[in-house]
User: Fold these one by one.
Assistant:
Number 1:
Amino acid sequence: MDMNTLVLILAATVAAAIPLIFAALGELVVEKSGVLNLGVEGMMVVGAVFAFMTAAETGQLWLAVIVGALAGAGMALMFGFITLSLMANQVATGLALTIFGIGLSAFIGQGYTSVALDGLKEISIPVLSSLPIVGKLLFSYNILVYLAVVAFVGIWWFLYKSRAGLILRAVGESPSSAHALGYRVIRVRYLAVLFGGAMAGVGGAYLSIAYTPLWAEGMTAGRGWIALALVVFATWRPGRVLIGALLFGGVTIAQFHVQGLGVEIPSQFLSMLPYLATIIVLVLISRDAGVIRLNAPASLGQPWHNELH
Amino acid sequence: MSLNAVPPRLELRGITKRYPSVVANQAIDLVVQPGEIHALLGENGAGKSTLMKIVYGVVKPDTGSIFWNGQAVQIRSPAQARALGIGMVFQHFSLFDTLTVAQNIALALDQKQDMQALSARITEVSNRYGLPLEPDRLVHLLSVGERQRVEIVRCLLQEPQLLIMDEPTSVLTPQAVRKLFETLRRLAAEGCSILYISHKLDEIRELCHTATVLRGGKVTGTANPQLESSKSLAELMIGKELPAYQRASTRAVGEPRLVINELSRATTDPFGTSLEQVQLSVHAGEIVGIAGVSGNGQQELLYALSGEQPGQRAEVLIKGQEAGQLDAAGRRSLGLRFVPEERLGRGAVPEMSLELNALLTGYSSSLAQKGWIQYAKIREFSKACIERFNVKAAGSQAAAKSLSGGNVQKYIVGRELMLNPEVLVIAQPTWGVDVGAASFIRQTLLDLSQSGVAVLVISEELDELFEICDRIAVMAGGQLSAAKPVVETSIEEIGLLMGGTHANHASQQRAA
Amino acid sequence: MLRLEPRPAPSRLMVYLSPLLAMALMLVVGMVVFTILGQPPLKAFHAFFIEPINDWYGFGELLIKSSPLALIALGLAVGFRANIWNIGAEGQLIMGAIAAGGVALWLYETTSAWILLPLMFIAGALGGMFWASIPAFLRTRFNTSEILVSLMLVYVANLVLSWLIHGPWRDPDGYGFPQSKLFESSAILPIMLEGTRVHAGIFITVLALLAAGIFFRWSLIAFQMRVAGLAPKAALYAGFKQKKMVWLGLLAGGAAAGLAGTAEVAGPIGQLLIPISPGYGFAAIIVAFVGRLHPVGIVLASLLMALLYLGGESAQMQLALPAAVSGVFQGMLLFFLLATDVLIQFKLRWVPKASAGAV
């Protein structure tokens, strides 16, 4: 394999990792506040369809990204209302959100399945993009890829360097204590959930207007679930989310290249790789209960209400 | 009140707070003067905590008014309370385990903090008041006493005019209590008022200038505790005298029923305590107590004894049989019964009826046969338990969570006793239980040991252990001291042991 | 402003009322959506909820669709009661269908229906259980989330099926279409109701219903699993065998889904192809919740959910709406149920703004 092929594979890996990075970083913030939203897949797919429709109707790709984010946040708002204001079981509500999202996106996207779209183009930075190797590897992606990097840095700074991030972590650690100190637990969690929804929406938008600029039913293909697994795998740390997402991007890309190398494996088995890899990393990380206990937000998934504490 | 007199620091008038099922506070009046240490005395469920949450802005009263330094105020949030100069040290600490001491403190301060400057202030204030703290340590690595220091220092940094302390001594050794009292007296001398919530009469008599007594949500009296006897305070608090216990003068102690044999266990929980070489035997007909500040390995020991976390075969012997590898069901079949400290959610299923809760541990007796539930039998069993142990409940169909803490405890204790124990392990038997139920439960334990059962009591209440135990051992830092006969030891000596290993450990680390 | 206040005791009335309330809300919102889409609401309602079942054949279709839903939901309820979240029933259904289909193809025209069909059902149940045993093993051995593992295996199962019908099991006379050859008649379930497609698979569901009814009410292990769901620490305290519960919870769902998959390929489909199920495995999760994890409730919920499937098909034909509208309604139903369930533990009270305070 020559250098150029390798660079191409690495660049493709980054491109495949981006939707996971958006969705998993968003869910990370949600879980840090103590909320488990299993509806990432649903929020992503709704974000994808809304973004695609916007792009197809207006031709404005940036507007499509914003609409995708808003659609994801809208879905998250429903989840938030039911779990935070009405204290429903978070697991069941998250599942409902995914089932609903898949149905909703199929419903409203029906007329768009054969629409072609000019996807988001790679930006070209003078000089930098034309550098050998580095140019292709670092400076020739579409704008959302760079947005993902910005999101990563921003979230890392928010969680570990800002007072608001400290409050968010405190709420996820012990909502009752945070409440006793006077913090608005429910409001903090709403904001986190909405942010997570918007991030999943952007992840979906990336899929439908940049990665593969088209709309197909269920086009997220389990990426929302993989993002959930990534958060566990990363033991709730943003840096590891990034690494995990790149690994999964690599697995996704590998399936195309293994065939290119002339290995005789039915394509279906190669397509299984991301799902099997998810299971394997989950097994590896969850073997050690202590690691999970130390890193998981202590109140993760438990309903909380002012009147009960 | 004359015009030139200093107004009271805090005055409550006619505070009432109703919850759907209970009136927590009814027309409460309370006056706290500047520099006064004011006790709020009452049993569990008397309404003390609700009243304090109202003062701290966590709970809003239905009616009534609050005056702060003579001005009428509405305290809408803890932030507002802090802005007024009110600080609160919670009974169940409002700390965040995975954050550092400094981060925890920053969260309680309302302005954005420069963390380095804050750390310096923490060190300064904590040393000034004799409450040493390391700002950068993670809270889950601290002992319970150190955690309380964090809470206190957190309040002191805001230079409070009123400090509320909710049952602060329940987690301290007798020696640490004395140090805390020194700090509090010093604060009071500097003009800070202290509202001290407790149900411990001796402490209040020692520390407080004034006491307001609550019973059933109402004020039943105000007194100068230093002039009152424990008996007269108790009458105000519970409406009658403190009960006395009947115990036989001679007790026949039989063969060892429960033997813990060099039990060591590294904790899998990063917030837990590892057990080291725990050694103890409990004989038929005696009550052995384990004292200790919570968080010193009691939880881990209980999990190891009950079988909820099984281990090595030879670590635990029940009636001479190796039982260390058995789960809870296996040990129950050998005659061990266990009453855990968490009643709802562990000892009983809150949402289920008392009948089904009988099945929880009774399933291996006749309440289930060949894997099928015998509904008639569990009803009969449950009704008998309610009657024999004087459980106040709306029938055997009532959900466990609809009962008061004391009645749930009576039901659980009753259930385990009706299942014919040969060894009983019971944790915090009267924690959060009213005085009447507490004395009933203690008497029941005394009678049980009299009938030849081996009883092991783990409790944070030293008074309770001295009242009912024959021998007492102390748990500190995951190690258990040798059990001493009660008549050969004193509260003072036990207190020193309670501070033992853990305090040394901490001071060594600081010295290093 | 409206405020929620805890009830002193849970409302028994709301336990029964809340699903009806959820259904009513779903209808109201559905009508609004139809109106927005420019459909007269009453006509749409008729096309969606009346049209599909106003004849004998339509009634049969309702049974055909509700049967697998109820069967899978019963199996899932065993685990859900213990907070064991098997959400991969769709994959277990596919694996069951593959196993049963494999038997049908392997024993092609060698034996009678009396032997072949039972063998297919046994194979189907085992196939579903095998697929469910993977999350069960990983959960009990490595404490791995059964939610994510069972879900990931849905995608894997689909790919396995895809490989089989594109590869080794493809019908050689099938003009290259990705499907197996049609099963012989002795691998096909007999029709039970004249004039409909209702097949004998429905008996499996009825049997499962009776078994589940007895199991949930009288068996000790079902009680123990309920305890584990409500208060996991109490289950540990009581010494219940936790691993056994995880295995039972997952295997029950796997077996039920495998049987449902078998009934699909041995019933209306009659061969292996993609898709085998229009998402029964996921819809059954909704059925289990809306049915309150109780056999009677599950039957009622399965009929409602089946009607939503039929309504979607009917809406496509009559109103030219996408069939995916079913999924929207199904999702909404579960949403509204989860929302209205708050009224079991809380009551709504109107509080004047002034004294409400900032909570």
Number 2:
Amino acid sequence: MKMCTRNKKDITTEYLNSKKIDKELRQESSTLQPLKLLLLGSGECGKSTIFKQIISFQDEATKKEYTPPAEYVIKNIFLNILTATSTLVRVAPNYNIEFTEEENQKIQTVLNAFSELENLDQTIFTSISDNIKYLWNSKQIQSIYNDPNRIYQLNDSTEYLMSNIDRYSKPFKPTQNDYLRVRVKTTGIVEADFKIEAVPFKLVDVGGQKNQRRKWIHCFQDITSVLFVTSINDYDTVLEEDNATSRFTDSLELFREMVNSNWFVKSPFVLFFNKVDLFKEKIKRIPVSQHLKDFNGNDHSYEETSQFIKNKFHTTIKNSNKIVYHHFTCALDSHAIEVVFNSIQHSLLMNVAEVL
Amino acid sequence: MTKKDNNIKLKTSNSLPSSPNGATKIKKSNSSNLKKSSTSERLNGKLSNNSNIYNDDIQIEFTKDDVPFSKQTLNNLGLLLNNPTTRRIFIQFSEKEHSHNHVLFWQETKEYKEKFIEINQEQLSTQPEQQQTTTSTSSSTSSLQPSSQPQQQQPSSSSSQQNSTQQSIALITDNNNNNNNNNNNNNNNNNNNNNNNNNNNYNNNNNNNNNNNNNNNNNNNNNNNNNNNNNNNNNNNNNNNNNNNNINNNNNNTTTTTTTTTTSNKSSPAMPSITPNTLASDHAMSETPQHGSSPTSMTVELKNQKGDSSPGSNSTPRVKSINGANNINDDASSSSSSLSSKKENNNINNSSSPIQNRKITNRRSQFLSGNRVSRESTPDDNTDDEENEIAMMQKSNLKSCLYIFDKYLTPSSELEVNLDFKTFIEIKKKIDQNQITVNIFEKSQKEIQEVIANDSYFRYKSSTTFKYLLNCAEQFEKDNSLIPTSDEKPKLKSRKSKFFCM
């Protein structure tokens, strides 16, 4: 009898305990909505790269879930290289650049492969990689590539991919860097769920092209923080969408619209000035004042130019109480991004704690 | 596509040869599917136990109308998009992440190509173009259209018709001659070859269909006599049945033949005007793919490659089918029906291969012209009508073109796709210059397929939905043998639902 009662008692306390925990959990889960981070910005500014980076800081399961298989990365590397080559070759007449007969033959093999992208695989790429490499290193292509007056659209990672072409010409395993560098147009809205120290996060990536932006509204609800990415490097380029609008103006206007939007009244903004590495290189060649007319500082000073651009963005903010953090980043630099993300994470959790 | 894949497809198309209406509306998925699922059945037993499965929040449901798919279909984006079932589910999936506009665009450009009416004759100035269009006209007239076929034959070669079953070759040459005359184009020797093929197939079809569906034919044809082209509700099968009767007088209703004859006689004086009739019957044809209906039409899509790649098969089954036509009687044995459906596919493929199918643009104009044709058998002002027809066709092409442009390409549209700027400008230019061709969206479609393949398709592939579909495909391969037994039910029920539809 004694045993029985004790047992019974044990069970009941256990039962009560577990019930209590269950209840707490339920309460917690109902109060603890995932922290929703939204990546915004115009096309090709590096949203998806930051997305990839943030995913790569998470645990193995998350990484596995949101990282594409190797063959997908490989295919897109080939695709990027072929697209870049054909773009450069096709734009050549506009720069009054001609190729020799031999070079034209090589060009033809590349263009043939480009016209049959469905069949593109390692064997085909291997067969043309020498031609691509030759063309890329030819003085004609180099002069097109280095022409300060760029009238065509080219991925920023082209140079990286081209310099690694020997590695890609044989069957290879894509590195993390390859994966980060490869350019894929994001379509639609991509969400990733993960937990950092038991706090659920939801990271949302979107396509940045103008035609993708009206989809954004679908994910504007309950945003904890907006990670706005702009490519600081793009002060001299025009939009891929219409080949006319300045990317800088577009990004600035977009930021103005978003930062003052009613959707995000309570959400702090994190502003990424991305691609600083390219920017530092570019200001040596292309003076900022040439494209941003109201800049009258030192064209070659990184400090002055970057501060000027930063201020341009900050002056668009109408609400003076708005929290906007800014970071100068290179999305490829895993360590730097990790530091930035941790600080964002920290301040977000602080905010959440305050609310609670 | 694997053999297995084909087998599966054949089997489903077998199972429902007599229920064109019951098998409709693949794309009008949700409501109709839900309705159907209560009365009808899933593809096989196991699936039916799991009618509502939530994967990635997507409710996947199969009905008998769905086209089976294999793992290969799923793993190749091109095949996946071409299969209406997998495409439908893919659209559902991508809707969740708001990238479905690309898949929809892909689908609509595909439909655009199918619906596109190739405009023939005077307006086209250059010789090669003329030849091409003639090919399309003659091939489609001879192979697809019920009314235009007799139109070409009747004036000169009614006797050959009588013998057509035995001497299809003779008939073919007759056809070719007539085609030449009718089209005012005497130097299209190349086209003759095309016509040959088409006619061959056509005749095979007729033979088979006749035998399979004699009983049905009587009914259908009687219904259709008044308005030869009011096939709007009766698709492919009936359409062909009409043909059969027209050509093989010995077999069936002479009434039909005479009606059609009058129609065709009326319009034939104005020689280049195959248009009215062709057009009219085009409506009937276009019904099939538009409603995404009968299983045959779906297999058509899927078998394109097969039909095209094996031209030799055209001749062999022909002999068979001629024999079959003579030997097999009214009972529609499943084997011959499979033959016929197979050939229907070939037939359509062939006719569509010289130039993309000539098909009318929107449903409204289908109904419109359905009426018009019935009027046409009385008045004599063919030339006017013909010009109107051309204008109509151009208009409808333009309309469907603009429809896609407005919906997916205009910079402020809801569903704007992520298209390269250059491609967009190209299309816009063409539209501005009124150069509406069948290939106007070709490049953009390809580009969008790349976009899908590079982005959303990858995510789709790693989704649970996709894994579930892979299981389905696997299961389907295993349970393939089960299909014949479960066939019985679908047949009965689909007939029922056909009645409901009517």
